[in-house]
From TrEMBL:
Residues 315-538 form the Glycoside hydrolase family 65 central catalytic domain. Keywords: Hydrolase, Signal. Pfam families: Glyco_hydro_65m (PF03632), Glyco_hydro_65N (PF03636). It comes from Mangrovibacterium diazotrophicum. GO terms for molecular function: hydrolase activity, hydrolyzing O-glycosyl compounds. The keyword Cell membrane does not apply. GO terms for biological process: carbohydrate metabolic process. This is Trehalose/maltose hydrolase-like predicted phosphorylase. PANTHER family: GLYCOSYL HYDROLASE-RELATED, PROTEIN-GLUCOSYLGALACTOSYLHYDROXYLYSINE GLUCOSIDASE.
Length: 685
């Protein structure tokens, strides 16, 4: 049966890979196949765009010419409904243009040879199309890395054999649920320098924030007269007209900034200043800066030789983690990043357990910001613990800007999924392990670990045999509610308590001896054959995602090969087909560490290939869902590469490499820019 199951998985993956090639690779030329930084698409059917993001705003593109579906704002929240929890906000959208050529408004129906190229290295999306017998049009979209509240669209219109008359409108569109207080156009002057500005100011749906968006055109030396038009209470535009002579090019840009009272005392004036800065001679500078900053990020890269499809998939995953992060922002990453309002933009364990480890290896600045996010909300975590009768700090299952519990009240996870507090503590010690930053450990890391440890002492209860239990929880497998002694919860608590003891010693403090006592006596349950039970009353039900197997990785509590295999053989067939992708990534890591490259590669592919959505390969949360981009899944697949195939391990004395295990079709695997010393690790057969 085991052999047949493996064959079935391999056959399924082979089919998916072929299907993926048909969707994603059929239009690639030989030169494009060698350019592993770019993904080119020519079919807009079932289009799922890849967000262009700089860690503050996420611009979600469309297949429709000159359209951006939405702009998502990081850590800017209002209520989702009158009696609902918080929800991350859409920005007032500045990124839509309308092009008219010889009286015809350009749309998907009257253009030819449409294509888009996502350049991962430069973090740009280039769209090209032809207006038959009239023009070739190219434009690039940027979420500017150096100006985190600003986006830019750079446009080139080339007339073909005849002169053409074009009309271009730049729009600002406000979500209909917002309360618009000002939608206007004005031209400022300083020393005769005209600065035309289109502007919208609005209150968020329930009044928590004021948002301001400003936008304008950028021309070369020849200014264009602009006209203002109000389209609706929520949308207005400025437009210009121009003749483009045959065989000539006309270039212009459209730039906009969106600011809110979450980050600015005066968002209106700040959005205006940012647009003026770009407009007045800095367009080329900010594009150059954007590309240079992304080039710096890509000094930390994953390079796969021999498997172009896996190379692009891995780079796309890493692109998303970089795009949704920002150093020194003191912000974390939501499950969908800045690609949508999915899961209300809240912060879960997805951040610490799934996205943090790859970023810790490849970009410590991003990793530190994720922990800064938790430290800034430590006071609220202490309040939550006290409100439920516990000591120390109890982090919310879903966190927003306030740090209070943001899970919808109907979801039992918000009331009972407590392992998040241990997950935060584990991430803290791992950051110290890699960086050796003792000052940070003293000021931020150990306070988080210490107050988490105090919580776990009050949250656990001693049994008559002297062991300890953590009862009435929801574990990583969220199908099982209100259970006792969940394997992953107890395992993560054990590790977090052990790390708290180690951190106390490093910081010159005396650890509470109770931390070690509880850690060593937490109860785990087993079937008669030695398989670890997921919880005290588990009877073999289908599970949502990996739980028990997390004891082997990343917790490294189960280390004997026989025990690791026994748990994997039992739980792999019990993972729900509707569950999230990350579970198979864990199995991939473990099989790679056990030296089974073929099985590890099968599960690596199984973790994400069924979740790819056309045309670029955006990842949905599960094989059956339609909610890309699932950044948590990206974190899982990257862990399979880094901690599985590359053989990297975090230890108390830093990062070590043990027994890398390369898939047979990979000629080599190279990891660059690793850790604070920016080391390179290369694996070959």
């Amino acid at each position: 049966m085991k052999k047949n199951r493996k064959f079935g998985i391999a056959l399924c993956i082979a089919f998916l890979a072929l299907n993926s090639m048909a969707v994603f690779g059929s239009t690639k030329t030989k030169n494009e196949e060698t350019d592993l930084w770019k993904i080119k698409v020519t079919d807009p059917t079932d289009y799922v765009g890849i967000a262009l993001s700089n860690g503050r705003i996420g611009m979600v593109p469309s297949s429709k010419p000159f359209q951006v579906k939405s702009i998502i704002l990081n850590n800017v929240f209002d209520r989702a409904g009158a009696n609902d929890v918080s929800k991350i906000l859409e920005g007032i959208n500045f990124a839509n243009l309308v092009l008219v050529v010889d009286g015809d408004t350009i749309n998907q129906a009257n253009i030819e040879n449409w294509e888009q190229v996502l350049d991962l290295k430069a973090a740009t999306l280039t769209t090209r199309f032809e207006v038959p017998d009239k023009a070739e049009v190219t434009y690039q979209i940027y979420a500017l890395r150096g100006m985190p509240n600003v986006g830019l669209i750079d446009v080139d219109v080339h007339a073909l054999k005849k002169d053409i008359q074009i009309s271009v409108a730049g729009k600002i569109s406000c979500p209909a649920s917002y309360h618009v207080t000002d939608a206007s156009f004005k031209t400022l002057h300083d020393a005769e320098a005209p600065m035309p500005l289109l502007k919208t100011i609005a209150k968020s749906p329930f009044g928590k924030h004021t948002l301001a968006t400003t936008a304008t055109f950028i021309f070369g030396n020849e200014a264009q007269p602009l006209q203002h038009k109000v389209l609706s209470p929520f949308e207005h535009e400025i437009n210009f007209q121009r003749k483009v002579k045959a065989k000539e090019n006309f270039q212009f840009a459209w730039t906009g900034a969106v600011c809110s009272t979450e980050n600015f005392g005066d968002p209106q004036n700040e959005s205006e200043r940012m647009v003026i800065y770009v407009m007045r001679g800095n367009k080329d500078l900010v594009i150059k800066q954007h590309k240079e900053l992304w080039a710096d990020l890509w000094q930390s890269d994953i390079q796969i030789e021999g498997d172009p499809e896996s190379q692009r998939d891995v780079r796309l995953a890493l692109y998303h983690l970089y795009a949704f992060s920002r150093e020194n922002s003191r912000l974390s990453i939501a499950p969908m990043g800045l690609s949508s309002q999915g899961y209300n933009g809240h912060i879960f364990w997805d951040s610490e357990l799934w996205m943090f480890p790859p970023l810790l290896i490849l970009n410590q600045g991003f990793a530190k910001s994720m922990l800064d996010y938790r430290f800034d909300r430590l006071g609220k975590a202490e309040e939550k613990a006290a409100n439920y009768g516990y000591k120390g700090a109890m982090f919310p299952w879903e966190s927003d800007d306030t740090g209070e519990e943001a899970t919808p009240t109907w979801a039992l996870t918000g009331t009972f999924e407590h392992h998040i507090t241990a997950d935060v503590g584990i991430a803290c010690w791992n950051y110290y392990r890699l960086t050796g930053n003792k000052e940070w450990l003293k000021t931020e890391g150990f306070p988080l670990l210490k107050k988490g440890a105090k919580f776990w002492l009050s949250r656990s209860s001693q049994n008559s045999d002297g062991s300890y239990s953590i009862n009435n929880v929801v574990g990583a497998n969220e199908y099982a509610m209100n259970i006792d002694d969940n394997a992953f919860t107890n395992g993560s608590v054990k590790v977090a308590l052990e790390y708290a003891t180690k951190a106390a010693v490093v910081c010159g403090e005396t650890p509470d001896p109770k931390w070690d006592e509880v850690a060593q006596k937490l109860r785990f349950n087993y079937f008669d054959d030695g398989v670890t039970k997921e919880h005290s009353n588990y009877k073999g039900e289908i599970i949502k995602q990996a739980d028990v197997n997390l004891l082997a990785y990343p917790l490294e509590l189960v280390t004997e090969k026989e025990a690791v295999l026994k748990d994997m053989d039992y739980y792999e067939p019990r993972i729900s087909k509707k569950g999230p992708a990350m579970g198979y990534s864990i199995f991939s890591v473990l099989y790679a560490r056990l030296g089974d490259a073929d099985k590890a590669f099968d599960l690596f592919k199984r973790a994400y290939v069924p979740n790819k959505r056309p045309p670029f390969g955006a990842l949905a949360e599960s094989a059956t869902s339609q909610n890309p981009y699932f950044t948590t899944g990206a974190g899982g697949m990257l862990q399979a590469v880094l901690f599985g195939f590359a053989g990297l391990h975090l230890a108390d004395d830093g990062l070590v490499q043990k027994d890398p295990c390369l898939p047979s079709n990979w000629k080599s695997l190279t990891i660059t820019g690793v850790g604070p010393e920016h080391k390179t690790y290369k694996v070959t057969h």
